């Protein structure tokens, strides 16, 4: 292939030189720009993180005061005392049964306590069935909801024990059958610390 001569040849040579210069500049500028953007983004993220840490540090005293308030309120009294699942289950059962009996309710069924982990605590669930008059039922539910440690009532099912239209005798109220899921929170077991190996023990 023969290159043109004269003016066209000089213009073609200039274009080729410009393209070569642009290619060299692009080969240097594009990686430099990408590298600059990478480090600039990383720098901005670090600055934002440092700013968040500074805001947290400024609020440290407020957080400490809030923790002191919680400690003064003895928040542990709202939870079951035992951390072992079997002891926590027994504690919940021993707590619920007297509440039912002392408020005029008659326990008819009680299921084993189920335990599961929930957000750093253990959630205990006890399903009980009992019969009670409307007045005794109201007293029982109120006593359960205001108990200490806190108890939470889930899936309360009420059924009448008499047919519709039944007229009880004077001063006699028909009983209601109730089935309630009673939940309580308790602490988890403290993590066990590994004992250091005795000095001079053989591997």
Descriptive notes:
By secondary structure, this protein is α+β, with helices and mostly antiparallel strands. The protein is built from four helices and five strands. Strands 1, 2, 3, 4 and 5 form a five-stranded antiparallel β-sheet that branches. The protein is elongated. It starts with 6 loop residues before the first helix and ends in a 16-residue tail after the last strand.
Helix and strand arrangement:
Blueprint: H1 7-58, H2 60-72, H3 85-102, E1 106-110, E2 114-118, E3 121-132, H4 134-145, E4 152-160, E5 176-187
Antiparallel strand pairs: 1-3, 2-3, 3-5, 4-5
Write a concise synopsis of the structure shown.
The chain is α+β, with helices and mostly antiparallel strands and 203 residues long.
Query: Runs with pLDDT <50, length 5+?
Result: 199-203
Please state the average pLDDT score. Answer: 84
Count of individual helical segments: 4
How would a textbook summarize the main sheet?
5 strands, antiparallel
End-to-end separation in angstroms reads 81 Å
**Class by alpha and beta content:** alpha+beta
């Amino acid at each position: 292939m023969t290159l043109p001569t004269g003016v066209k040849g000089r213009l073609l040579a200039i274009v080729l030189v410009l393209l070569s210069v642009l290619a060299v500049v692009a080969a240097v500028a594009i990686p430099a720009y990408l590298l600059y953007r990478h480090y600039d983004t990383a720098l901005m993220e670090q600055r934002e993180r440092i700013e968040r840490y500074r805001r947290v540090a400024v609020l440290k005293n407020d957080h400490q005061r809030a923790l002191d308030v919680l400690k003064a309120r003895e928040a542990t009294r709202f939870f079951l005392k035992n951390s072992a699942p079997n002891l926590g289950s027994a504690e919940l059962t021993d707590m619920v049964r007297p509440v039912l009996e002392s408020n005029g309710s008659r326990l008819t069924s009680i299921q084993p306590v189920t335990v599961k982990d929930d957000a750093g605590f253990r959630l205990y669930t006890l399903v009980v069935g009992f019969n009670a008059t409307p007045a005794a039922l109201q007293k029982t539910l109120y006593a359960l909801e205001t108990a200490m440690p806190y108890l939470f009532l889930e899936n309360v099912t009420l059924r009448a024990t008499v047919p519709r239209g039944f007229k009880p005798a004077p001063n006699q109220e028909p009983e209601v059958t109730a089935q309630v899921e009673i939940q309580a929170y308790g602490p988890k077991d403290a993590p066990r610390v590994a004992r250091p190996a005795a000095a001079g023990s053989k591997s």
